[in-house]
């Protein structure tokens, strides 16, 4: 019998249920319709490998059929967060906007015509593996907060929704396990502390059949089916934040499966 990928092997009704969830959000808090929503996707290789046009945008279009949606993705593999926000310090004023941030902002300006009169802006971030590998986990949170602050300032709005793809369990048992965990915890703290913040689990998305057909376990990059699931999780989280924004409150963060406890560097 052929080996079945763990994500693909789940009940097919699960995919249908996710679509139903999205439509329910659209039919309730977002029922007014005719709104304009901007979704910005950025990060390193796991974001770069996500085919947003195929695995993310169609779910938004199904949930928000009456609205105008603009999805912009700009990602670069193997990059630390200092390529977006550079320099030391605990505030945006003490840090500089790095080359990848300027590239991202330039693309946003080009595709929006410099007009940011959207009803909502959602920033979806999948990055952090490089910082963990370089032993920079202790500095990650301040840079992540500075990155969001830069977007808020440059887009002239403070109601930007944030969805973070928490880095997977790939490095939790390696030589930089403590830094890996620090990045994960920083991502959760930042998302959980925001009125419009959410994070998604990726620990179960890097096991299974890789793009080369070989079995992979706790790999750095996700499996093809893992990327499909990541696109769905990002879409569900983004729609949930839109519903919370429309309702004027934040709902509790859903429980996340496959969490790993803190492990020390070996």
TrEMBL record:
Q: Where is this region: Disordered?
A: 245-266
Q: Where is the Sialate O-acetylesterase domain?
A: 63-239
Alphabetical list of Pfam families matching this protein: SASA
* Residue spans of biased composition, Basic and acidic residues class: 248-260
Q: Which Gene3D superfamilies match?
A: SGNH hydrolase
- Where do the TM regions start and end? 12-31
Q: Does the keyword Glycoprotein apply?
A: no
Q: What is this protein called?
A: Acetyl xylan esterase
Originating species: Microbulbifer flavimaris
Its organism's taxonomic lineage begins at: Bacteria, Pseudomonadati, Pseudomonadota, Gammaproteobacteria, Cellvibrionales
